[in-house]
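Much of the work behind modern protein science is quiet bookkeeping, done one molecule at a time. The protein below has been through that process, and both of its lines are reproduced in full.


***
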Amino acid sequence: MEKFNDKDAFKTWVKQKTETKEERYARVKEYWKTLKPFNDRKDIPTLPRVDKKEWDEFYVPKLIELGAIPKKDLVVGEYYIGDHRCTGIARWNGTVFEYWKWEFFPMEDECNHFEDDDGFALFVPIGIGTKEEFDKYGYDAWLVEKEKKKNENI
């Protein structure tokens, strides 16, 4: 059960829990209109689920305005810092971003640039990364760490 410090906090909570789809949509869009430029990947908000027309006409230009790197400016083989539900760094291969995904062990996976919404998680690049940053999440780094822990237990 949630606890509230004052009556206004409770009223806000009730309003958010009972708002209509249209009200929520308007609140999210208003929030996006007031965003400040991205200084860090944590500044990138959760990407909303909207129809393709609105995504292309409002959200893509807004992301670029706030500091996201447009697809046309990406360099093949370059590493980018940004936001995705599974990672904060990925490598652009000219078509999609490649990143290290952790399940039971690290494995390479792919995701689209935010301009190529395919209904799955998208990567929003905001800066240049390094191979060293990318590799520290990879399979080889995982094996080294695993071996180190194994030797510590001997």
Observations:
- Residues 114 and 138 are 23 Å apart (CA to CA).
- Residues 52-65 form the longest helix (14 residues).
- Residues 71-152 form one domain.
- The chain has five helices and five strands.
